[in-house]
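Quick note —
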Amino acid sequence: MNGTHDNNNVALYASAGEDPHLSDTDEDNAPDAVIMGDYSARFEELMSDGDNGGEQGEDDADDDEEEGFVYDGVDADPTGGYREQLRQVLGADHEEDELEEEQEVERSLVHEVAENEKFAATIEDEAALGNGSPLRSPSSRPYLHPTISRLRSVTPQPSRTSSAASGATLHSHLHESASVVPSHFSALSRSSSITNLSANEASARDELVREILRWTQLRVVGEHIYAGQGPKTSALFGIQSSGSPTVMAANGLICVGTDSGRVLVFDFKQTLKCVCGSDASGKPFSPVTSLALSFDHTYVAVGHAAGHVELYDLRSPKAPARVVPPTTLAAVASGRQEGHLPGSRIVSVGFIAGRHTALVSADDCGLAFYHSLGKVLFVDATDILRILGKYPEEEAPEIPSGLGHRFRRRKTRKPATILSMVPLPLGTAAHPTDSYNLIALLTPIKLVIVGLKPSPKTWYRRHRESEEEVNSKSRFKGTLAWFPSVTVGSDLTSSPERDTKKTQANGAHPTSTPMLVYTWGESMHLLRVSESKITQNVKDAKGKVNKVEVGRIVFEEVGTWTASDDILALQWLNVNQIIVLTKIGFEIHDVRTFKLVERESFDAWSLVSPTLSHTTNGTITYSDAVSEVAHSVRVYKGKIFLLGQHGIQVGTLLTWADRILHFVEDGDFLSAIDLTRSYLVGEAPGNRNGLPDDPERLKSVIGQKLRELMVASAQYAFSEDRMRDGTHVTADGRGVDRTVLFEGLVSTCARASMALEDFDFFFEDLFQYYENSGISGIFLAQLEPFMLNGDIRQVPPRITQRLIALHAEVNRSDLVEKLIWHTDPECLDVNQAIPLCQQYHLYDALIYIYTRAIKDYLAPVVELMGLIRRVHQHRRQRANSSPTSMNSTDEKSIEPVILSAYKVYPFLADTLTGLTYPSEEPLPEDEAFEAKNAMYEFLFFGHSSVWPAGEGGKLVLTADEDSGVEPTYPYARLLLRFDPEAFLHTLDLAFEDAYLNDKTRKVNRLVITKILLEILATPNLSPEERTFVHIFIARNVPKYSQFIELRPSTLNNILIGLAEDPDTSTREDRQLAAEFLLSAYTPHESERILDLFKEAGFYRILRSWYRQGQQWPELLMTFLEDEDLPRRDVFPSVHEVLVSAKRVNKGKLPDNVAITLRQSLPDLLDVNIGNTAALINEHIPDCHEAALGALGPDYDQERFVYLQRLLQPPQKQDEDDEYEAYDAVVWLVDRDGEPRSALTKADAFDQQLSTRIAEAIVSNDDKSQDAISRSLHKLEGVTGTSIALCLERSQVTASTEFTLEDLWFQLLSSQIDCVQHVASCCSLEALGPTEGVPTDDPRAQREHGTISALRSLVHKTFSALMSVSSTRAVSFPRLFKRLVSSASTSKGNVSKGTLYTEFRTILTGMLESFRSEGDMLVITKHLVDRDVADTIRELVAERDKGWAPARGACGGCGSAFFSSKTLEDRPGGGGGEVQPESEPVIVSRTGAIYHTRCLPSEFSTNQVVNVH
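Predicted structure written out below.
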């Protein structure tokens, strides 16, 4: 971006007849001409608070002290108007409250344009913002169709399909007038404003044109350094050559060292102040390789390539004030002198604190020294202290005079090489660490921090980690930089940093802690330095002990992070940010978050390297020399100075304010507002330094400016001057349509107001602008999408009225309903909205208004019941009319009424369960209670009610005729009559709510049930109503048995009603309801009930009844008579009945069962002849003749099939295969002694079933889940049988025909192939962990469940294998390796990554299972150990209480002390007479035990104890 300029501003200067080249003397000739169409100029007037003459006077006074240097107007950006607008927009309160010297630097780095303006508000320290969260718009739950309810035998899914009338309201509407045409107000603008532009789109557009670093060439300095620098040119013009630049220092002054040994010193006005070392009588010097400028800008320290260190006083710069020549090894060995050796290149030099004669220097041999250049009696007295490094064993030869370098052997870079050395500079605020004179030194292997005061000491040492030494090139890349203690604003530091700052008592700003950033390769490390005080006891000369406070340095390692490449240079921009240079560009990093903030491309090789000339003699490689550019990058007060091979540049990191003003200058105020909003909500990319961390303060800072931008933009957009300026004129003389721009103003201000959470300007001032200009339609059209998306819900009623009326005028009822739904109820005009909803039949919106705006839950029910009554009246009229008089138009007109009437059921369901309709968000507890209470009392009131209550109300009628008689409970009857299933489904949902648990309320579950029973007793009830009332009561009585207590006779009548219903379409539903009821009630008329169940076809209940009563003939007939039973299940079921009958009859088929079977032969033969033959042959073989006779004489083919089945029975596995009894096939093949063939069958079945599962997953239709479930069930059966097969073979001696490991390998390989086959059809989310599967994606959930089930089968097999893995026949590691190898070469299109991921999942899952089982065993062991210990403790305690018998039999009669039943059960019976257990016994202390009657006479009383 070097050399860029603003064409707009150049045009302004040209219009005044001024030369774009600016000088120091043109400050009074600034042009005054301004184009009215330029928004930036107009914006300055709008935002101006008044005359700024006072400020200008102050600036002029500052200019007298030090004027800015001269820039070339062609290559530099004129910034006068830019900075003035920055002051106007962002305000004076945002000017950096930094050092007075920093303000001086700002003033000196400015163009002298117009009135010699200054950079006034450079914002340096910025902070990151948080992210905003969008509002969530309510969603509608689709309604459940009345033909599918909870009363059915198949429970529906919770979701509901929407009704036709409300379906359109479920989606947001984007108005047709939304525009995306780019436009701008200013004719000079090149940016565009896009209507309804999202935040991401605005950010992406901003990113395309975003300027990060703004550069300016220092041409005057360049002319001095680069022009005529060659020796031939110097000789031609007779001037002394200053040489080529090598290094630079820029802190207060710009100092440039050259290869001739001289230093050129410039001020920031680009004036050459002096040339250090220009004395012609002096000896030639070696090239300058390092530079340092003192704290007060009066002395310059210079390090040379030959090892010299010089100190120049800028007041007399021709000759150095002090010179530190290199020393020799001999002098060092004698102890007379320390210092650099000849030929050692000085790589770093620096001043200690604020002193002029205290220097530190380091060379490329790894030696670093402290130089104290004092004087004693006017004689130079140099004191040199070595602080790092060791001298070499031998000294290099001396450099010939006058040569900067010599040809010599290439140096080998050693680990002790000093990469960088920097002393801690003084900051703008004093800090305790300043008194220690800290110096940081970096080598390829360690960081060392040395303190010179109070005595030289190494305070910190950190060795480089081995992993940080990436490669040989990166090993010798290292930089470091200090940031001293400075005074910072409280709003410019992060919260943790503010907590550590010290604040003065007078309320001054806190100070920062000194920080050090050092790098190795691409790795960056942050170190914070502070002081801590400790108290020590010290004895003085008199032996008195005094307490002395001693300080010590504390180093805090804050964090580590990395750059994109090896770091070549590093500097601090401000207290929060650093800038690093890699070979491809600059990177800005935030040290608080350790994140990259900005990146800009830059060619690092274009900078000057002080060692590049050394590549000619081979001492340094070119790749090493060209990358040593750290001395060519300097930062001073936020300004970046670069020493390039062809010029010197100064750059500035653009702040958030600069980016905003960039759009302001171009007149693109919409982009300026969008960018400001993005800073407020934390969406803006890049540099955010200077913005507070605290959200409230951030909102205060940015919010105020955002409001000012919106106000100024609106004023300018609707100003008369803009209407007359050039923005409405085109080259062909036609006008320009600015509609798109006015649309963009609305949408942009809407997003800004959302971010501010303040819509006062948007709805009051901005809307009034559009209203007064007669274009309010544009405002309303752009506002509507924000309302429909749920972003803006609080809209003033006057605007809502206008917007709704706008759509009502064109009969767009769908848009009216959407707007009502997405508007806050308090913002609606109910007097306008309710009639419109009634006119256009918008009942969803009508319910929303009644319930959310008026809090009236009965009015919607009354409205909808009126529709139901109309439907009933229409149906009655149609039934009474002749077929010829029926009109198709009437039928079509009633259909919308029916659809709208059905809305009453979901509304009732939501209200009675405490939810809002239709979004189903929970209602407030108090409001939900009142709504339920009112709804129940209204619905189940015994007679008709007046609505609205009080005067003026009307009776709510339900009869078809106006004069008809109203029945009891009219409203419940009306809803039940309209759709019994939908109404009772609603009540079934309501029964689950805890509101009905209170039995003391007027309406509870028992009351509702009794009301339904009373309605059930009505003679004119339809069969459908009776059916579903029976089902409802039968299913809820056992569910809420503690709340619903009915007489047995009532339950018996309900059971009979379920059975007597002739409707076959509800037979399964009625049977399920009867099963529910039978779980809580046993009928007393069992025979009658059974007969009814037979007539009703409740065969499932009959089978359970007959099986329990062992009524085998009747049970057998249920399978033959059940028409719904699949034909393939008939014979397995009959066979199971016959086997059960034999089992309870001692292996013989009961006669009555055999008779029933003979009588059923025709039915069995009709199902399957072959299976009948096999069944008869197994159970009643003497009936073959009867079976053949049942076929008849004319059925020879059928007889042949029958006999063929008897004489040539098929293989059992083929038959089982036909019925897909795969596990039986595997078992039968194994029983024949062929385990390998059995596992081969299992493999084929696994492949077949996995293919079915994969096809079901791919098809993803309604039948997929059932197909997957059936296939998984069969796979589980095959797996179980196969595992049992392998376990059985593992218990016997290994066969010579096969190895045990091969069996397990065959089984596991087949299962893993199945998993891979199915996994190839699943999405990546489904293959991951459960928490990563989207909950709103049914397909992903199904796929994850399927693959998890297949993996569990593999885990089950591995678990079984581990139970026998102790045998040497199976090696688990070898087996697992075989599985991995075979799977990688197996068929299928599974990638290796997926394959190994699958194996890892299987193995980790198995190990987790074993770990959990191991934990369970440990827990069980602890529990058992504790229980055993307690039991033993109790036994010991009981034993200690008395004497224990020696044996369990009487010592007299020999009878055992057991009960009669126990003795009879023992083999051989018992000897002697058996006594009752209650007979007392006597125990002797010798251990003998006797019955009382068997006690020997010689035993005394005190020798025995009675036991009862």
